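Attaching the record inline, Q. Sequence:
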Amino acid sequence: MKRLSVIFLIFMLAATSVQAAAITIGYVDLQKALSLSAAGQAAKGKMEAEIAEIEDQVKQRQGDLQALQESLKKQMGMLSETAREEKQIEFEQQVRDYQRYVKDKQDEMKAREERYTQQILRDLGQQVVALSEKEKISVMMEKGQLVYADAALDYTDKLIEMYNREYKDNN
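Structure, as predicted:
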């Protein structure tokens, strides 16, 4: 209870000192900006191209593995017990190598996507500050953190516009 009283007192003191200045509030939807901005679209296109290339490599390895399996099935009747066991062990090792390769590629793509996303979010953060200063916004919030806000306070489209200009100038 004592803590609540102290917080209330601090809030009241802050409110009275800020009363002289007009407080303006806005919000942006960073997910929308990430998805619709030129940088976000470029990163998405780059990721899709990289994923397609990796999928081709995975399909190639999968085809090689299936061809090996078919070859082994044909040879099994002609091989001795020991040779069959060795071929089976070799095949199982290649299957494990394939599975490891696929997992490594998935992890690699996930890490790349996170790097792209983090860089764009850092850039968007800088643009949010610039937009807030330009529009004289005292408090800019992220839409995902809001329970309700009037659409008139949404600066997402302006943010995307600013970021696209910056992105095009630098690329």
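The mean pLDDT is 86. The helical segments are 2-18, 30-36, 38-75, 81-135, 156-170.

More tomorrow.
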